[in-house]
Amino acid sequence: GAVVSQHPSWVICKSGTSVKIECRSLDFQATTMFWYRQFPKQSLMLMATSNEGSKATYEQGVEKDKFLINHASLTLSTLTVTSAHPEDSSFYICSASDTLGYGYTFGSGTRLTVV
Amino acid sequence: GIQVEQSPPDLILQEGANSTLRCNFSDSVNNLQWFHQNPWGQLINLFYIPSGTKQNGRLSATTVATERYSLLYISSSQTTDSGVYFCAVGVLTFGEGTQLTVNP
Description:
The complex is a heterodimer. By secondary structure, chain A is mainly β. Chain A is built from no helices and 11 strands. In chain B, the strands form 2 sheets. In chain B, strands 2, 4, 5, 9, 10 and 11 form a 6-stranded mixed β-sheet that branches. In chain B, strands 1-3-8-7-6 form a 5-stranded antiparallel β-sheet, with no helix packed on it. The interface of A and B includes residues 42, 91 and 101 of A.
């Protein structure tokens, strides 16, 4: 089946710094990847859709200048949380859709803690 | 946008019991998936089931697309089945999940 690798699994950073999260499709090409955010005890909320070779599409209420998305190749999308603040602490998870009929496959997620 | 409702929100079972989780959605969809989120946050894809019935071991799922609902059946539950079960539709809108606790 399709595999999506996400790195790092967890990160702690100081307030004001930037953090980059990588999402890779290992055995398929993904022209589109998706980034979600999940707060404790809550569901997953779609933040943005990452399109290879073009600008990402952000959901309403998501600051595109704070959450920079780059999808430079068919197997890699990155999410950079810029000037992180404690309220950005959350679980971030990416997904991609393959063409093999498995639907959407998710990475293992990144737990970000901003101190 | 499309609305996804899951029930029940919480479910506590004794090991060996059977259960049914429900997912209602507000519009026709061409994609529906059931996921299990383990304690470490990993989302495990259980079923890709926009319509019809599928089975995988003790788990099975049925989606009746014309009536806009899907059911996830867990038989002979085990403690390792504990966690949150999510239904997601479209690209992807998630329900609020069902928190399942299976006690030994």
